[in-house]
Design a protein that fits this description.
It is a single chain. The protein is an alpha+beta fold. The chain folds into 2 domains: 153 residues, no CATH class; 97 residues, Orthogonal Bundle (DNA Binding (I), subunit A). Helices cover 36% and strands 17% of the residues. It has a 6-stranded antiparallel beta sheet with strand order 1-2-3-4-6-5, covered by helices on one side. β2 and β3 form a beta hairpin. α1 packs parallel to α4 and α3 packs antiparallel against α4. The longest helix has 23 residues. It is globular and about 65 Å long. GO terms for molecular function: endonuclease activity; nucleic acid binding; zinc ion binding.
Length: 271
Amino acid sequence: MLKHHSEIILEELAEGTGAGISLSQVSGGLQTGLDIWFSDLKKSAGPVVELRAHGLKSHQVDLRFGMYSKDTLKLIAEAPAEDQLLARSLVSSISPNAKLSIGGQTTDTWQVLDGTFGMSARLKHHQGSNNADAAIKTSREVIVPMMAAMAELIGYDVNEPENPSGEMEGALTTVEVVRRERNPRNRLLCLRLHGHVCKCCGISPSKTYGEAGKIIEVHHIQPLSTLGQPRQYNPLSDLIPLCPNCHRAVHTKRPSPHLVSELQAIMSSDV
């Protein structure tokens, strides 16, 4: 049952969305489902995702808004156009194997207009839905992009531990840029758009090392240090995946790192 996989679901969602997540069991019918929401909002005051088994092989995921979501909906209505674009991109990254519905709206233009907004998806698993692998897959491929999209619209910053030294490095604008750099929602989209393969050497760490291969890194084509002020990063054009070796290698050139093409030329030379 899904309740047996609560811990791994919470872990996947926290890592993928960068926001605090709460979860509770919800009973009804023959199966016990899970309600999932943002920890700093009451369950009734924001978006809630319900996860249930559908038959023996599928998971049903439904996102809805609570009865007292007025303030949250106001925040979403005021979300900048760039955050709306990223939210739509996140929802568009939901697994194509999932049957997605957004209340009659399209994935390219949907908007949260009021509390009646909702989206649903159903994902079928070949080996059945009542196992940890299926729970992880549904979390990564459906729930994470759904909730990450809502987090982007609400305006959540990424949860990060405080600097143990108690000091911040650089000016306030630099701190804001660093927070954006570490945004797991940008990483999520970058890897979904470009794949988990190093754009320089072509290695796929996850294929080589299995579960220990979650070491692919995300590289900013335009260095953060060259920005005059924080800005939104486009995961398609501004970010690329690199293996740890290539990522360190491109940054050996300063202040601007090597282009990937430059590093590839170095790698193919006899030097």
